[in-house]
């Protein structure tokens, strides 16, 4: 059963600690109010308030979102592929149960339908109750919520979606590993229309670069044009996060990018802009080496 909400007395706090996978250190936060804690069939879910980070969402002790910086991750994951597609109408989000990716997708006026496939319904229900801004669009009539394994769900579609966004948990946590396989990326390619675009979060390139490198190479094996790009994400391990863009039609995210679409965009953006879009694809030498693109 979910733990009841708990608020500490003034001047007192708990401490949340996340240890990174290689154990070089971690992330530590003061907690002044614990909002939700439960064990789902798949993972432990925690949501709490921190005096600096705001509301924090964690799965199996790994930080997924904080109010202070979640926009950096969600804007970079979503808007790069959305602005590259000429007319995205139908979008599939795999994972992303907190709702942040759906929120950003629906900023694009061309979108008619978003299917969000999240394996853990308890994550979505908790986000809708305790993360009202991040999950603010999950009740939108254009959104269809599906509670299934995304690696299996995507296999039933052929030539269906304009954009697929993979907002997965870490491959070492819960069910996230199913969304990093060669077979999964092949199924995503088949589910996209002929001009479809895929974008996946592919982990940090400081502590977990092997997963980023593996994901990039597996996506590259299934698409004619694949590029990795980077963005800051302060509360993720290393603070430097990777995303992998893949175009089924071969649209280059630099050569074929139209910055006027971004300049004329009416919705608020706090991180992503036309300069960031182009700069994000300039990779440091060590990242190029990791993904075999020296």
From TrEMBL:
Molecular-function GO term, any one: spermidine synthase activity
Residue sites binding spermidine per the record: 74, 98, 167-170
A single cellular component GO annotation: cytosol
Domain of life of the native organism: Bacteria
Residue ranges occupied by any PABS domain in the UniProt entry: 13-248
One Gene Ontology biological process: spermidine biosynthetic process
UniProt catalytic activity: S-adenosyl 3-(methylsulfanyl)propylamine + putrescine = S-methyl-5'-thioadenosine + spermidine + H(+)
SUPFAM superfamilies: S-adenosyl-L-methionine-dependent methyltransferases (SSF53335)
Pathway membership: Amine and polyamine biosynthesis; spermidine biosynthesis; spermidine from putrescine: step 1/1
Leading EC class: transferase
Primary role: Catalyzes the irreversible transfer of a propylamine group from the amino donor S-adenosylmethioninamine (decarboxy-AdoMet) to putrescine (1,4-diaminobutane) to yield spermidine.
Subunit structure: Homodimer or homotetramer.
Family to which this protein belongs: Belongs to the spermidine/spermine synthase family.
Protein name per its UniProtKB record: Polyamine aminopropyltransferase
The organism of origin for this protein: Fervidobacterium islandicum
Gene: speE
């Amino acid at each position: 059963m979910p733990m009841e909400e708990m608020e500490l007395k003034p001047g007192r706090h708990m401490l949340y600690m996340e240890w990174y996978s290689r154990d070089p250190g971690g992330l530590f936060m003061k907690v002044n109010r614990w909002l939700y804690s439960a064990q789902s069939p798949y993972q432990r879910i925690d949501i709490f308030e921190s005096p600096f980070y705001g509301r924090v969402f964690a799965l199996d002790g790994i930080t997924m979102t904080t109010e202070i910086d979640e926009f950096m991750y969600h804007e970079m994951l979503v808007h790069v592929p959305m602005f590259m597609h000429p007319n995205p109408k139908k979008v599939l989000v795999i994972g992303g149960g907190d709702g942040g990716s759906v929120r950003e997708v629906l900023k694009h006026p061309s979108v008619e339908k978003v299917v969000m496939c999240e394996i853990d319904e308890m994550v979505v229900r908790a986000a809708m109750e305790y993360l009202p801004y991040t999950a603010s669009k999950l009740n939108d009539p254009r959104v269809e919520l599906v509670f299934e394994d995304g690696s299996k769900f995507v296999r039933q579609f052929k030539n269906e979606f304009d954009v697929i966004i993979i907002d997965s948990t870490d491959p070492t946590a819960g069910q996230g590993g199913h969304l990093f396989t060669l077979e999964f990326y092949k199924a995503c390619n088949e589910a996209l229309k002929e001009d479809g675009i895929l974008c996946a979060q592919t982990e940090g390139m400081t502590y977990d670069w092997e997963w980023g490198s593996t994901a990039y190479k597996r996506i590259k094996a299934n698409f004619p044009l694949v590029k990795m790009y980077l963005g800051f994400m302060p509360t993720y391990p290393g603070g430097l996060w990777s995303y992998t863009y893949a175009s089924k039609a071969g649209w280059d995210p630099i050569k074929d990018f139209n910055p006027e679409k971004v300049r004329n965009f009416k919705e608020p953006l706090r991180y992503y802009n036309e300069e960031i879009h182009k700069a994000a694809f300039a990779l440091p030498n060590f990242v190029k080496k990791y993904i075999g693109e020296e």
